Amino acid sequence: MNYCCNSCRKTFPEDQTTLTSEGLVCLSCANRIRNKIEAGFELEERRTALAKTEAENDRRAALRAVKAISIPDPDILASEVVERLGGVEGLASLYVAQVMEAAQRNPGSRTVLQGLKWVTEMVEKIAERQIKRSRLSGMSDEDLEALVAEMMAKQESQLEQTQAEPKQLIQERPAGDR
Ligand SMILES: [Zn+2]
Questions:
Q1: Chain-centre distance of CA 138, in angstroms?
Q2: Which of 43-47, 110-114, 124-128, 144-148 has the weakest average pLDDT?
Q3: Distance, CA 104 to ligand 1 centroid (Å)?
Q4: Which of 12, 25, 27, 57 is most exposed by smallest CB count within 10 Å?
Q5: Residue 45 CA to ligand 1 centre (angstroms)
Q6: Is the overall model pTM greater than 0.85, yes or no?
Q7: How far is the CA of 46 from the centre of ligand 1 (A)?
Q8: What is the residue extent of each domain of the chain?
Q9: 39 within 8 A of 19, measured Cβ to Cβ
Q10: What's the CA-to-centroid distance between 25 and ligand 1, angstroms?
């Protein structure tokens, strides 16, 4: 009995046919189908490899771009900005002018109050720093050395504890210690 090839439509004896994904076909069509499937796999593999290469290239390009951007030193940036705003005096005048104008246009507004709050907070910080400084300057050399040694010992023991049992340290630390 002869069978019709599902692909080329010619008839073949049973022993010259085989079952494939495209149904019963002759041996030469089966060969062709197998080659086509293999070529498809190969193409897919090549596509995957190409996509990987492209992703890697993108990553490298991004890294190069990051390296190329020079990150400015904050000190230099701050001094440049302050200089362009007229130095410390210019900056102070600008600040006062803005707050005064806002105060005249809209007294008691959030902008005005925040502007004044910033000044009072700054004054407070400066006062605190001056008190600390005068306390330190009033200390003898021995007392200063003892203070530094104490601070370093504290830091070291904290570091050791953190390395030994980090979880326990967090649990045991009293709330007021932070
Ligand atoms: Zn065929």
A1: 45
A2: 144-148
A3: 95
A4: 57
A5: 28
A6: no
A7: 29
A8: 2-68, 80-138, 139-173
A9: no
A10: 5
Give the Å distance between the CA of 40 and the centre of ligand 1: 20
pLDDT of residue 178: 46
Nearest to 31 by CA among 55, 5, 57: 5
Of 4-18, 25-39, 80-94, 136-150, the least confident: 136-150
Quick one: DSSP state of residue 139? S
Rounded distance between C-alpha atoms, residue 7 and residue 9, angstroms: 6
**Identity of the residue numbered 104:** Q
Q: pLDDT averaged over the chain?
A: 85
| Cα–Cα distance measured from residue 76 to residue 11, given in angstroms and rounded to the nearest whole number | 87
Please state the separation of Cα 124 from the chain's center in Å.
35
